[in-house]
UniProtKB/TrEMBL annotation, chains A, B:
It catalyses: 1-(5-phospho-beta-D-ribosyl)-ATP + H2O = 1-(5-phospho-beta-D-ribosyl)-5'-AMP + diphosphate + H(+); 1-(5-phospho-beta-D-ribosyl)-5'-AMP + H2O = 1-(5-phospho-beta-D-ribosyl)-5-[(5-phospho-beta-D-ribosylamino)methylideneamino]imidazole-4-carboxamide. Keywords: Amino-acid biosynthesis, Histidine biosynthesis, Hydrolase. In the C-terminal section; belongs to the PRA-PH family. In the N-terminal section; belongs to the PRA-CH family. InterPro entries: PRib_AMP_CycHydrolase_dom, PRib_AMP_CycHydrolase_sf. PANTHER family: HISTIDINE BIOSYNTHESIS BIFUNCTIONAL PROTEIN (PTHR42945), HISTIDINE BIOSYNTHESIS BIFUNCTIONAL PROTEIN HIS7 (PTHR42945:SF1). It holds the Pfam family PRA-CH. NCBIfam families: PRK00051.1. One of its GO terms (biological process) is L-histidine biosynthetic process. It is an enzyme of class 3 (hydrolase). This is Histidine biosynthesis bifunctional protein HisIE. GO terms for molecular function: phosphoribosyl-AMP cyclohydrolase activity; phosphoribosyl-ATP diphosphatase activity. Its EC number is 3.5.4.19, 3.6.1.31. Pathway: Amino-acid biosynthesis; L-histidine biosynthesis; L-histidine from 5-phospho-alpha-D-ribose 1-diphosphate: step 2/9; Amino-acid biosynthesis; L-histidine biosynthesis; L-histidine from 5-phospho-alpha-D-ribose 1-diphosphate: step 3/9. It comes from Thalassolituus maritimus.
Amino acid sequence: MTANNNTLFQKRVSIEQVEESNELAPKFDKDGLISCITTDATSGEVLMLGYMNSEALEKTIATGEAHYFSRSRQVLWHKGATSGLVQNIVEMRIDDDQDAVWIRVKVAGNGASCHVGYRSCFYRKVPVGNRNENAPGQMDEQICLEFTEHEKTFNPLAVYGDVPNPTQL
Amino acid sequence: MTANNNTLFQKRVSIEQVEESNELAPKFDKDGLISCITTDATSGEVLMLGYMNSEALEKTIATGEAHYFSRSRQVLWHKGATSGLVQNIVEMRIDDDQDAVWIRVKVAGNGASCHVGYRSCFYRKVPVGNRNENAPGQMDEQICLEFTEHEKTFNPLAVYGDVPNPTQL
């Protein structure tokens, strides 16, 4: 073991250690973040893609509740602290090069995870494979997204009030 | 519609357009990339987290086969071109602020997606919620990852030969 005094995480020393060992040696990017895919433990649906800094990953592991780092607000974000929609971890996995985690969660309250009010952040479908036969690899027509959820699970204004919208153009 | 001459994508003009409309207006980060979560269409398992540049996203949409941008090699990457493990898209979704896509795929060949030889890149479990009762939020012991796949689906050396390992320390 290659201990790191500050955290639970090991220092990254070799590709073999990172890919093939049982040591947790996460790679944080140049902004200090690791990606986190969050899925519903029951339905398997992808709810959101979030980001964790070292502190958020440690707190998630220690408490069993999802903590993220908010890129728009630049603060540690205990998911559900405002909305009540806490995400309880059923399982956490990490990928081959340890620069991404996947958490399977049960969401408290009404089960929503998206600030727009939908259950999943991925509430729109992108049509694919609509080949143009005269020009393979080109699309025939303008892409039109299709909504997969038609009712919002909650009213964002009632839950978040005048907290600034995290979406950035 | 706010047409962009170069691509299938719309220019991002408002939060309402990005979150609530049927226009595809993806947000590429400062490296020109958008995140892509790839899950197995049948089992729901997360196979990998990849990245697409504008060209990769267009080709994925037009052909129905997953294309990524390889950050380690800095090239467009038609997944399966070397290994035969092509990912056929069953469904593509995009998230609220349009900076991430989720693709549900059927993988050709032996069904593997991970360069280490496993089916999923997320082949190790991170234990969570092991609270220290004397210091809530702190862990009791060293974290030890647990393998969820015990046999490799293919031999990476036989498939990739001496292509450099994409994992970076």
